[in-house]
Predict the 3D structure of the following.
Amino acid sequence: MKLWGGRFGKASSKKAEEFTSSISFDKRLSSEDIAGSVAHARMLGNVGIITREESDQIIAGLGAVLKEIQDGTFPFRLEYEDIHMNIEKRLTEIAGPVAGKLHTARSRNDQIALDEHLFVKEQCDHVCYAIADLQSAVLEECREHEQAIMPGYTHMQRAQPTVYAHHMLAYFFMLERDYGRFRDCRKRADSMPLGAGALAGTTFPIDPAQVASELGFERLYENSADAVSDRDHILEFLAASAILASHLSRLAEELVLWSSTEFGFIEMDDAFSTGSSIMPQKKNPDVVELIRGKTGRVYGDLVGLLVVMKGIPLAYDSDMQEDKHGLFDAADTVIDCLDLMASVIDTMKVNSDRMRTAASNDFSTATDVADYLAAKGLPFRQAHEVAGRMVRHCLETSKYLADLTLQDFQNFCDLFQPDIFDAITVESSVRRRASPGGTAPERVHEQLAHAMQLLEAKRQHLEC
């Protein structure tokens, strides 16, 4: 008989049982569910709703159930629907009729909300650790190649010279914001819903603050209907995961491009590359391609739950059972992607000579020509037009700007002096971009030092 079967005079359809059962996936919440039940049982005993002896018997039984789950011997059964009823049924078999008192003053509605809050908090911590590890890998790359010059791009066209460390630090600071989003998500998930009952609270004199303290929650929900119908902590986790995945995808795309023969800026380590079943020469960046591809999967997890939640009236509805697939998938996916990206960056080789050659053999210092003339007093728009005509002339004569003579420069504008040749080297272009956040060596060094401080502070916080 179902644990809720007293009102029913007919057994459930086997098809309905299979369709409504969630044990195949929500068994992942078993440790959270048992932790919540232990805290709840202890509270029931402390406030006198059940005796302390009964509370102790229930807690001991829950310990035995947890050991079976950890040992892989727990008999998960479809007919008991979900993780809550599977655990309660097994607890009854172990502890006897006293197990029936565990569910006093609670509902599966606030029970699953509790499990998911605990899970989201824990996964936020895991993601933050993984972000810090990737940031550490990025910083090591930046320190090793702090002054390596490379082309900077806009519209996937060479734009201005930059340095490799400056480029990679952009991803460090994107990841820093991702880290902040998951820390913020954890703060908002740090509300304890147990005690809300089905939606309206309970008639029993419970002490939810005691349960919250034992489980490490910062606060209680102020409204019981909100507590059981709230899934925005999961939506926020999925939104943060989607933004993180977009950053990883952009980095993955650049690594794919840079590892191609056409770019040749980096070489992936063999351990994180694959070959072709037909073309013996191939070395494919499959790992980062899959990181890029899994971004769509994480986006789907977010959009799927947004659609599920968009029209659900208060309080609990079974639609919310669909919140777990995407949550579990996104958490696993972003943690795996972070871990693998850190390994890829740790092991790849950077071809700094190839990068510098690419930055030099182009017209990426054309802006420096315009800036030079503007500094001499020519309005920038006119200076821009002069530099553009010079680029066109070079294209027509198969030259670069550095190939022109002083007379060539002065034919376009008499403000040019011999120092123009120093101004249009890639080293000079990089060095002179010393505005805050720029790519000049001293600015990059400042950014790197600040990034290292942020990472160290993060490590200390995560170890607390």
DSSP finds 19 helices and six strands in the chain.
